[in-house]
Amino acid sequence: MTNHWIDIKNADVVLIMGSNAAEHHPISFKWVLKAKDAGATVIHIDPKFSRTSARSDMHVPLRSGTDIPLLGGMVRHILEKGEFNREYVAQYTNASFIVGDGYDFKNGLFSGYDPAAKKYDQKKWGFALDEKGVPKRDPTLKHPRCVFQLLKKHYSRYTPEKVSSITGVSKQDLLKVYEIYGATGAPGKAGTMMYALGWTQHTVGVQNIRLAAIVQLLLGNMGAAGGGINALRGEPNVQGSTDHCILWNTLPGYLPVPTSDKATVEEYIKANTPETHDPKSVNWWSNKPKYMVSLLKAWMGEAATSENDYGFGWLPKADPGVDYSAIFLLDRMYKGRIKGGFILGHNPAQSMPNSNKVRKALEKLDWLAVAEIHNSETTDFWRRPGVDPKKIQTEVFLLPSCQRGEKDGSITNSGRWLMWHNKGIEPMGQSRSMGWMAVEIFKRVRALYAKESGAFPEQILKMDWPEVYDADGVARKINGSYTRDITVKGKQYKKGEQVESFLYLRDDGSTASLNWLYAGSYGPAGNLAKRRGLAQTSMQARIGLFPNFSWAWPVNRRILYNRASVDPNGKPFNSAKPVIAWENGKWVGDIPDGPAPPMALPGGKYPFIMQTQGMGQIFGPGRVDGPLPEHYEPAETPVKSHPFSAQLNNPCLKAAISDMDVLAKPGDPRFPFVLTTYGVTEQWCGGVDTRNTPLLLEAEPQLYVEMSPQLARLRGIGNGDPVVVESARGRVEAIAMVTVRITPFKVLGKSVHLVGMPFCFGWTTPGAGDATNRLTATVCDPNVSIPEYKACLVNVRKAEKVSELFV
Amino acid sequence: MAKAFFIDTSRCIACRGCQVACKEWHGLPAVQTRQRGTHQNPPDLNPFTYKLVRFAEGKTGAKVEWLFFPDQCHHCLEPPCRGAADSFVPDAVIVDQKTGAVLYTEKTGALTAAQCKEIQEACPYDIPRRNEQSGLLTKCDMCIDRLRADLAPMCVKTCPTGAMNFGERDQMLAMAHQRLEAVKSSHPKAQLVDADNVSVIYLVTNPGLALQRPLKQAVESYSRRELLGNLTAPFRRIAG
């Protein structure tokens, strides 16, 4: 979230799209309802009517996979009606930038496309630069090649008629949504967007969010109280685990993973540190060298010196162009290229797409170690229904993991608040925390290397590693400390002293920090994640800002990009709900995005400090599949064409290719219905924890498939009947939930039925049903390789008899 | 001063935190359930479930309504169940004078199955359930143990949205009337259910749909008692 949970109450309009917030983030609705009490309008746009819709002012059913047409139509509406915040757009976004001659868009493709490689040459989309290397601008926004005009032209094609014909949303509903949300562009008004996996889990996932950000920038909602782009992160620590690099392509604090074509830290820094020639742009990532060297010092300790490149050479490297995401890792496993490995707190045999293939892939391993709280479809894949355990040679080790209440530690919530928790009880039986497992396993591996040596031992032998796992010690090290006595900014620091914030991190080896974003969380004042203070100024009280409660990254800033909430002189756009204000030569309110004075004053800076040019990126040349979001159908789609171009699917779409990765054809008569998948309130993610919690299993006991009464009639299915759902990849049994909460969509003149299924059930819970993901496809977004769980094609029929479900 | 709940169903998101927390606090076991084409599970109150979120859905034109009703004992001010029980076993059902909680004591174990059935039929809201193993009659006890320790009932403590509220009766009544006024602009049929007669005051937005119990979806399982429950005076009043 750019903002945080409490801040939702400041919104005038709450747009929940790509999220079922009430069911998956119940606590969010405390604040949504407070906004509603204060007069806000709550709109829910989602394929099915859910508990979120029940508490919203308006529910708009949308065919899964058509968010870009709906939002593209909104951009068109906003620009046509002139509802955008002109001062904000001209001064704080790149709308005024002139795009270079290389950029073009024709027939659904941007310039620079190589059909053989399914890739773009992104250099074609660069900005036109002046003699100093700064993008040329036209603040009047009239230049035909400025971003604003290109944006207008691009989305002029997204007429309400076309949008309605492909999304299945009535024109009347579209215009109502556009009018209500567009009104937040007025001065002093704010609209928040709450989204989750409903936007991300598509082959256009990244572009869904890009387009949402464009809308928020046009309306001046970024940086404002009650505004922002708010990704509702999973309960409870998805934010924290991402910050600490759970994904393959980042190191802690979103530093890029080193690649094998960059041999030295200098080359790495040169390739990954952006430069600007505009003195008013902060370009925060220019600090990357400090963060990287401090990370290397934290990892390698005394062994990291300037002479040996701080141990950069010891780090494992990714080969350029190779995708190491879970999807492709499992694909390589299926193809027999992986011998063994660890799976920690993850249940891919149930929660990764095309799970029949994943289960086969696990059989190819010689050995597998799984750390889990309960037995899962992954720990027990070798005895799953339909296989003979004797024929599976994989040796499986189960490491029993303890629960959160059985260990000290922290979580980072969706609003980036770092919150400490103390151990309540001792771990049950022989279970241990995963931190303990990591420390002990590494120690033993290292002892073996010390004794027997092996290929490339330095990275293991030289790592700065604790003797005993200690959550507090890790938290201290994440914050970082000085590695020698030093004078910084006129102040003396002793070796071992904690650094105060990332402003003190250095690229000369004198500081060590496991994650620059968290520097300041555990400084000289101690562990701020333990704070529960409610003190606030009256200005902070007006927007529900509690700076003494826990600690938020970065540097306790509660609303990101808050410099965009004030005009160039530092005066809040919304005087009733100010986030920051420039008063008597200093900032008051939230911690501002950098201490520089307001933009119009001497020494002033642009507001979007993380962007190289300091501007909100309406035109985003960084994404691999285009600088402006464009509609493409899901990889499996019920239509053979769409009204925006002849390019049916994302031209850069990534997919695993194997004999088990079969896709239905567009409009395939064998699989006429759209399937969308989701979680349920009572089961957590893949359900391993909650299916083993009897009171939750009691409330939500078995796999179901939600369908409209019209579809049920078409297939002769009654409410509560067992049915079979089939895709090109698999077959799943479920109980029919026939409900008016799902309605058929009218798409290109024809009726399209959609069904929805939770993904949380698996065969290790007897009679509950087995993985829905046996139906979904291994296709993903080209930027981040997130799978398209939210839309594929299936058929549904009444079951003669069932074996996966107790009936 | 007696205590009261105010249950604002217009704020309920059916997260069922109250249902689960109630069972946890009372140490009640899970029963085996089945998916029957509805999220409502267990299907009904039972000796191990004192609190149940009921789901009801309907469609008027294009407008879908999905209503959530966190059902429990309404703790009547003059409880008919006590009247019925007293004629069989004195003090099987008592009213705690300090809080107004209607409590089923261990003496309910002395009631016969037939007597329990009569007590159940006396309840206008179809709440009491007999544990066939122990012979005890069961239902919500207002978390009387928590109240005596100055703690809010578990369902109230758990609720994230302010649907479940608990406090002094006059305070809850004031809150209920205030919310009713606010809700009426978007839900003209909204009303408070039997506010003058019970300690658990519900605000419902669409009484016709919300108070069908059990759900229409499970209509074949209607028993005589449940039908009677639906026909008792307070319900007739609301439905009209």
Description:
The complex is a heterodimer of chains A (807) and B (240). With 807 residues, chain A is α/β, with parallel strands linked by helices. Chain A contains 23 helices and 35 strands. In chain A, a hairpin with a 2-residue loop joins β24 (580-583) and β25. Chain A is globular, with a radius of gyration of 26 Å. Chain A starts with 12 loop residues before the first strand and ends in a 9-residue tail after the last strand. With 240 residues, chain B is α+β, with helices and mostly antiparallel strands. Chain B has 9 helices and 10 strands. In chain B, the strands form 4 sheets. Chain B has a 4-stranded mixed beta sheet with strand order 8-1-10-9. In chain B, strands 2-3 form a two-stranded antiparallel ribbon. A two-stranded antiparallel sheet of chain B has the order 4-5. In chain B, β9 and β10 (200-204) form a beta hairpin. Chain B is globular and about 50 Å long. The chains are: A alpha/beta (807), B alpha+beta (240).
Main sheet attributes: strand count, strand direction, barrel closure of chain A: 6 strands, mixed
- Give the averaged pLDDT of chain B, no decimals: 89
Q: Unreliable runs of chain B, pLDDT <50, ≥5 residues?
A: 214-240
Q: Report the count of strand segments of chain A.
A: 35
Q: Going across the biggest sheet of chain B, name each strand in turn.
A: 8-1-10-9
Structural class of chain B: alpha+beta
Largest protein-protein interface: A-B, 41 and 37 residues
Please report the number of helical segments of chain A. 23
Top-tier CATH class of the domain at 654-798 in chain A = Mainly Beta
